[in-house]
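Sequence, please.
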């Protein structure tokens, strides 16, 4: 690990680099840090609910209508957002309760992603799959903490050409995802912290799933 990398980790987790003579002081610092992060994400979730509550309801209604008409959901993302895309697809396809819905993560198949990345470029690794699979009335959900992931944006552009509904989850100021206007429904988590953004995005897509299930089962 380089000096710069070490400094970055120390800034994120200062308690790990403090060497107090009293072990209780270290435990108190860890407790304080955990409590501060918990309060931070709770406050951010409340902010996101205020900003996007009504839009989430509209998005859920359109997504439920898509499923009712035989549509499918495709989720895309990179890195940690790929993990969230997989979790989102799993939640819709294999829910703890309610209806199982057709949902797939386009980042999950390593053979497909690496083949497309090698043959046509990583920026098009999701767009080519959208072109192959998506039909009018499907839903494409893209997650990006920065809002600037080129392959997610290309996937949205292709989804638009295919007549699919596009749903974006971004962070910060929304980046290019907000500027390009390629998401029919866009949910921006206003935070500079990747950690807090991803935590809030998890909440967003769980609420979206809950609202979709309610719409499909007539629960309001």
């Amino acid at each position: 690990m380089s000096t710069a990398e070490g400094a970055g980790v120390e800034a994120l987790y200062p308690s790990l680099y403090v060497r107090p003579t009293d072990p209780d002081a270290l435990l108190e610092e860890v407790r304080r840090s955990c409590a501060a992060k918990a309060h931070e994400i709770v406050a951010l979730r409340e902010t996101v609910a205020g900003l996007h509550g009504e839009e989430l309801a509209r998005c859920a209604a359109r997504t439920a209508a898509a499923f009712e008409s035989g549509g499918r959901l495709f989720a895309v993302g990179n890195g940690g957002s790929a993990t969230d895309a997989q979790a989102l697809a799993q939640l819709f396809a294999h829910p703890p309760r309610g209806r199982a819905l057709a949902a797939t993560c386009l980042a999950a198949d390593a053979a497909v992603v690496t083949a497309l990345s090698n043959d046509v470029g990583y920026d098009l690794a999701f767009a080519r799959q959208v072109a192959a699979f998506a039909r009018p009335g499907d839903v494409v959900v893209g997650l990006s903490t920065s809002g600037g992931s080129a392959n997610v944006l290309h996937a949205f552009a292709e989804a638009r050409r295919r007549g699919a509904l596009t749903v974006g989850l971004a962070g910060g100021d929304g980046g290019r995802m907000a500027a390009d206007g390629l998401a029919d429904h866009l949910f921006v988590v206003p935070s500079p912290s990747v950690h807090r953004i991803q935590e809030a995005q998890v909440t967003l897509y769980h609420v979206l799933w809950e609202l979709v299930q309610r719409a499909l089962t007539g629960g309001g």
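The mean pLDDT is 92.
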